[in-house]
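agent: user wants the structure for MD-2-related lipid-recognition domain-containing protein from Dreissena polymorpha. delegating to structure tool.
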Amino acid sequence: MSTSNGLFGLILIGFATTTLAVFKDCGSKEATVTKVLCNGQDSGPCQLKKGTDASLEIDFTSKTSQSQLTSVVHGILSGVPVPFSPTDTNACNGIVEKCPIAPNNNYSFKTSLPVKSIYPSLRLVVRWEIQDPSSTDVICIELPAEIVS
Ligand SMILES: *[C@@H]1O[C@H](CO)[C@@H](O)[C@H](O)[C@H]1NC(C)=O
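agent: tool returned. relaying tokens verbatim.
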């Protein structure tokens, strides 16, 4: 009984890993996120290769007008959020169509994530928030990731 349960568990884990949706919305209040790409991929954990810059793209439809947007980034390790300083906290600089953003329009936010060689190899969740000046999450996404050599 326990053997078959264990096997079933393994199969479930395998299934969950291969069909993992790349992002989870963690409370976007002023936008609808339509797509998240890590290194151009929209499935599987985001591969953060040491010594390289990973690319991140977040496509969204805005619900509000905003002219000032700030990126707040955390790496969540075993459930504990650790602040991460992005190269540029001004999220407007990553919006391809430029700020201000307006309701019911689609935008693409593109940025890169420097992966330092000294980082340990581990799995984590990257939480990327884009906030308005009142610190409300316009966007909040969580992305399963793994730091690899
Ligand atoms: C915005 O993107 C959504 C989803 O991809 C699409 O259905 C919609 O037509 C787009 N709207 C505009 C204004 O381009």
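agent: one observation worth passing along. The domain at 3-148 is CATH 2.60.40.770 (Immunoglobulin-like).
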